[in-house]
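Input/output pair, single chain:
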Amino acid sequence: MVEHTEIMNAIIVPEWHLTLSF
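Output:
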């Protein structure tokens, strides 16, 4: 589960960061 969480964070963080960029 920890590994999955890390992957989720790695994907989610860039997503909302790009959204804010737009």
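Residues 2-21 form the longest helix (20 residues). The chain has one helix and no strands.
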